[in-house]
Design a protein that fits this description.
alpha/beta; binds nicotinamide-adenine-dinucleotide
Length: 484
């Protein structure tokens, strides 16, 4: 049986308390995870602090950048190990993890190392009242010991998205991966040790949220800042923990994202785009589209086309060729998604396709499979339209005017992402300005340039990460004023 240990001060650390790690495809136990208690979290924080005060804190930027490139190269060298680990934990299609999760996981180290190497700081010269001159310049110093609390949907990618810039900026980190997906964070410990990242710079503590590693870590007074991706409700709990000591937070939270398709869109591309945004990763993408609004002249044709696409998605385990839809992450999450499938019926939805669980072969029958599902006919007040489901499902409603589309898209507490499909340049730019989100895609979805800002408006987050924006969170800017 595989054992997932904590990684503290450069060593793998076992604990007496373990919990099971199960495969989403068949619910088989694939490993035991060693849960960190208060003592392990204390040790990780102490190790992270002493690395900051030691070799890591004194290292030149050039050397740090070199080491982070080595981390990326080593992830790529061990690509298959990372891929297998991620597939076992998530059950997602191999093609998806091989093209997105693992390569981007590696890229996150190189991109941010290069940004930190090249980014300038500001400088001003000014005349002083005594007729002299003063020069100001800015210095960036690391935030310190950073807690990185991660979700399960893109485990390596979303974790390195934070660890990459945090380390590039000279911080030390303690990662708390999701209890559902402990593998790749643990494997990264081997990579860090192999390439010579000093002890205590990268630490991993396993466990749950409340009453476990997540809470111990985010409440720890030795942690200088917390970066978190996950549910909005969890963000509220972590923010309360961070209030003690007035510690900064960077939050990437939930969404209830709108997809807006105008009648003048390239129809086939729009259908393909919404198929991805609604169903990719079995709908377990924070940026995914659960509310689709289609302009009335093409509404019926669009619903029919999306139905055909959904029904053509092959459901199955990672390795099977042609699979487009894996399982949900856990039995608990399946129960949540299925409860929304029931609720949609109770709220009066027309089920265009899906709405249940597929029949799977006996070997996979215990897996967390659900059908891709499309609804129409619900009022905007329905809970299925208001609440984040995080499954392979969407509701499609018609609209007539641009103003109506904007009002529908913005009528939500969330503000993460929107995908807009139109061939009219004016419509595209007006929509981009009008939607209340952190990310607006035009004629695309999930297309990312890592130099650009990423994050959510309203209840979808606090702050922006990506490119130089990550530096704003992971460093403290100090102004130095020199009287000449
Ligand atoms: P979650 O909030 O349940 O858990 C995320 C992490 O927080 C886990 O590691 C968990 O153990 C930990 N945690 C839970 N309670 C805690 C507490 N009280 N204190 C400290 N840590 C705690 O989220 P999830 O189910 O893993 O992920 C799905 C959610 O993440 C969805 O809402 C999705 O929209 C969101 N998400 C957002 C983004 C984004 O970029 N905005 C990206 C991916 C996922």
């Amino acid at each position: 049986m595989k054992q997932f240990l904590n990684f503290i001060n450069g060593e793998f650390v076992a604990t007496r308390k373990t919990f099971e790690n199960r495969a989403p495809v068949d619910n088989r136990v694939i490993g035991l995870v060693h849960e960190a208690g208060q003592a392990e979290v204390d040790a990780a924080v102490a190790a992270a602090r002493s690395a900051l005060d030691g070799d890591w804190g004194r290292m030149t930027v050039v050397k740090r950048v070199e080491l982070l490139h080595a981390v990326a190269d080593e992830i790529n060298r061990r690509f298959d190990d990372f891929l297998e680990a991620e597939l076992a934990d998530t059950g997602k299609p191999r093609s998806l993890a091989a093209h997105i999760d693992i390569p981007r996981g590696a890229a996150n180290f190189k991109v941010f190392a290069d940004i930190v190497k090249n980014v300038p700081t500001e400088s001003f010269e000014m005349a002083t009242p005594d007729g002299g001159t003063a020069v100001s310049y800015a210095l960036r110093s690391p935030l310190g010991v950073v807690a990185v609390v991660c979700p399960w949907n893109l485990p390596l990618l979303l974790m390195t998205w934070k660890v990459g810039p945090a380390l590039a900026c000279g911080n030390t980190v303690i990662v708390k991966p999701s209890e559902e997906t402990p593998a790749t964070a643990t494997l990264l410990g081997e990579v860090m040790a192999h390439v010579g990242i000093p002890k205590g710079v990268y630490n991993v503590v396993h466990g749950f949220g409340p009453g476990s590693a997540g809470e111990f870590l985010t409440r720890h007074p030795g942690v200088n800042g917390i970066t978190f991706t996950g549910e909005t409700r969890t963000g509220e709990a972590i923010m309360a923990a961070a209030a003690k000591g007035v510690r900064p937070v960077s939050f990437e939270l939930g969404g209830k994202n709108a997809g807006i398709v105008f009648a003048d869109a390239d129809f086939d591309k729009a259908v393909a785009g919404i198929t991805r945004s609604a169903f990719e990763n079995c709908g377990q993408v924070c940026l995914g589209t659960e509310r689709v609004y289609v302009q009335r002249p093409i509404f019926d044709k669009f619903v029919q086309a999306l139905k055909e696409k959904a029904e053509a998605l092959k459901i199955g385990p990672s390795g099977e060729p042609g699979v487009g839809l894996g399982p949900l992450i856990s039995a608990e999450h399946k129960a949540k998604v299925m409860s929304y499938y029931e609720l949609a019926r109770a709220e009066g939805a027309t089920v265009v396709t899906g709405g249940g669980a597929p029949d799977m072969p006996a070997a996979l029958a215990e897996g967390h499979w659900v059908q891709p599902t499309i609804w129409t006919g619900l009022p905007e007040s329905a809970r299925v339209i208001r609440e984040e489901i995080f499954g392979p499902c969407c509701h499609i409603a018609p609209f007539d005017t641009e103003e109506e589309a904007i009002a529908l898209a913005n009528a939500t507490d969330y503000g993460l992402a929107t995908t807009v499909w139109t061939q009219n340049l004016g419509t595209a730019h007006r929509m981009a300005r009008a939607v209340e989100v952190g990310l607006c895609w035009i004629n695309s979805w999930f297309l990312r340039d890592l130099r650009t800002a990423f994050g959510g408006a309203k209840a979808s987050g606090i702050g922006r990460e990506g490119g130089v924006h990550s530096l704003e969170f992971y460093t403290e800017l100090r102004n130095v004023m020199v009287k000449l």
